[in-house]
Amino acid sequence: MSSTPSSQPVSPLRARITKASYPIVARLHGMPKLTLPGITLVLVLVGVFAPISFGVPALVLLALLLGWLGFLSWPVVGNGARFLRIFTVLVILLFAVSRIANP
Asked: Cα(62)–Cα(54) distance, rounded to whole angstroms?
């Protein structure tokens, strides 16, 4: 059973982050539908194929982007989607660390 935003109180931190994120999310929403997947694809390709000095920051930026989007959508998604979002961010960060450890 997933919780709805109205069933639990919203923490002050979540409220601040959501409020600060609104203009960015609204701007992303107004862009063409393939903008966010395109940004994601570019960050993945740079992260995998570029030299470490460019690839690792791209992977960290991708993990931050997906973590931020996951945080914003956390209250309205089920446990399976939550697990998948956490797992995805961890895999990206582990790949970034492996790029550093095995140049």
From this structure: 12
Query: 23, 3, 1: which is closest to 74 by C-alpha?
Result: 3
Helix (H, G, I), strand (E, B) or coil at 12: helix
Cβ(13)–Cβ(89) below 8 Å: no
Q: Are the C-beta atoms of 82 and 74 separated by less than 8 Å? A: yes
Phi/psi of residue 6, each to 5°? Answer: -85, -15
pLDDT single digits (tens) 25-73: 899 889 999 999 999 999 999 999 999 999 999 999 999 999 998 888 8
